[in-house]
Amino acid sequence: MLGQVINRLEESVLCVLLVAMTLLVFFETLLRFGFNTGLLWAEEATLYLGAWMVLFGASYGVKVNAHIGVDAFVKLLPDGPRRGAGIIAVTGCLIYCCIFTYGAWVYLSKMHMISIELNDIPIEKWIAQSILLIGFVLLLIRFLQLLWKIIKNESQGFEFIDEAKESMHLAEELKDDASTDAKSTTSGDRS
To answer: Is 80 among the domain residues?
Structure first.
């Protein structure tokens, strides 16, 4: 139950960020090219909305296996070594996230201490840039969940999207649709 609430919250936050950024860019473009004016703060707001969307979305991408990776070599390995490679890869990701989480904490604490505001929006910089810490903490959680799945033998590692297989599947569907259309056109000509 709690997991579903968190999943919905994540998806909702990503949707709100995407909609807000899209509407802001659309409105700013309309003002700039339609009325030869604009919003002074729109570019900075769009930049930060995009940063929030990317860093928040990275952890969501790990959760839903949406990241693209090269796993041709790993797929050749038997199950045991494949799990070992998965543990090594996830451990590397955890180390990376720990380094960036620590760096984000140090940076944000200094920004909080000196209380600088954004250039065009009256918000303190540390608040707008807090996604650095939030995003990497969320990534840490996702990688820990994946590591736990590997340890419990529920997963063998990252389950990347196989673009080649997906592309071939789409090509087959298009081929089937084209042959169905050709058959229906041919049978329609005979009537």
So the answer is: yes
Q: Is residue 120 part of a domain?
A: yes
| pTM exceeding 0.85 | no
Residue 98 has pLDDT above 70, yes or no: yes
Domain of residue 152 covers 43-163
For 144, phi and psi rounded to 5 degrees? -65, -40
* pLDDT, tens only, 174-189: 777 777 766 666 665 5
Please give the Cα distance from 28 to 40 (Å, whole number): 9
Helix (H) or strand (E) holding 83: helix 79-114
Residue 65 has pLDDT above 60, yes or no: yes
Residue 84 falls within a domain, yes or no? Answer: yes
**Residues near 136 by Cβ (< 8 Å), separated by ≥ 6?**
55, 97, 100, 101, 104
Domain presence at residue 51: yes
Q: How far apart are CA 89 and CA 53, in angstroms?
A: 25
Q: Tell me the three state secondary structure of residue 121.
A: coil
- Contacts (Cβ under 8 Å, ≥6 apart) of 137: 101
Q: Is the pLDDT of residue 128 over 80?
A: yes
**What is the three-class DSSP state of 89?**
helix
